[in-house]
Recover the amino acids of this structure.
């Protein structure tokens, strides 16, 4: 019990230190001037599978988990300088628009150099918050994952937010809980995919530019060089509608989606920092 209390205390200190770093090194922004930075602000001490239910209740919205639900309303909206939706294999737009109709399986492959860091992050941060619990081994996901697509609608049934919550059956931990949408950023000519992961008093934001490939596959990449580009951001809220945003240029992420054997969708998800890949995730997404 004492060890658990110390871990939670250490984790809370890390939360405060991270927020202080964002305030000290980021820029003060208004979301009305930078709407592409907007995302759901997390609770103080826990995210978990129930976060979006709490988030909806606070706003008088309704949670919808019936009918066909997708991460994106219209995949064709991603068309632009780097993406031709007509070039993409039809199964890929179907996945993004009808994600609730697919199963989700994952395997992780950590770099040996970064694996101890991943274990420490899980112990101090991820398990406590029930957010970003990246599997440390394939055993964590051997019994599969629960994949939920959650829609939040207002009293007039207008869609306000779409969330994807994934939970490992073997551990019971929330792996990812994030909102999905598309947006335009100043540093890229076209629509990007925006994913926001709620964190205490803020969120981590990943903005990825889409790319179609001649073989029918599709990629999103969070690669940029400066604030306003696609990439990885931290946001700490000061008051509703404003706060501090920090662009983390050293963090890169890419997801390559393609049809595998038997037409089953697969994806390779790579994360790197300072030019070194520290984690690769292998996904398999068969239709239900």
């Amino acid at each position: 019990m004492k060890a658990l209390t110390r871990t939670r205390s250490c984790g809370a200190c890390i939360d405060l230190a991270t927020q202080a770093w964002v305030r000290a090194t980021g820029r003060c922004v208004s979301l009305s001037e930078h709407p592409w930075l907007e995302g759901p602000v997390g609770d103080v001490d826990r995210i978990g599978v129930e976060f979006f239910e709490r988030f909806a209740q606070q706003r008088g919205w309704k949670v919808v988990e019936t009918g066909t639900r997708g991460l994106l309303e219209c995949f064709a909206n991603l068309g632009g300088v780097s993406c031709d939706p007509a070039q993409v294999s039809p199964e890929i737009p179907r996945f993004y628009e009808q994600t609730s109709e697919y199963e989700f399986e994952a395997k992780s492959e950590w770099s040996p150099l970064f694996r101890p860091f991943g274990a420490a992050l899980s112990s101090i941060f991820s398990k406590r918050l029930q957010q970003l619990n990246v599997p440390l081994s394939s055993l964590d996901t051997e019994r599969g994952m629960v994949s939920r697509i959650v829609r939040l609608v207002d009293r007039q049934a207008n869609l306000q937010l779409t969330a994807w919550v994934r939970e490992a059956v073997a551990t019971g931990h929330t792996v990812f809980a994030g909102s999905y949408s598309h947006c335009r950023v100043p540093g890229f000519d076209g629509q990007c995919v925006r994913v926001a992961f709620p964190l205490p008093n803020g969120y981590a934001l990943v903005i990825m530019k889409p790319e179609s490939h001649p073989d029918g596959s599709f990629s999103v990449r969070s690669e940029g060089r400066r604030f306003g580009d696609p990439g990885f951001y931290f946001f700490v809220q000061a008051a509703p509608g404003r706060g501090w945003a920090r662009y983390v240029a050293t963090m890169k992420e890419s997801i390559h989606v393609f049809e595998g054997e038997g037409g089953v969708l697969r994806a390779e998800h790579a994360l790197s920092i300072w030019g070194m890949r520290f984690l690769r995730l292998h996904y398999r997404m068969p239709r239900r």
About this structure: Residues 70 and 97 are 4 Å apart (CA to CA). DSSP finds four helices and 14 strands in the chain. The radius of gyration is 18 Å.
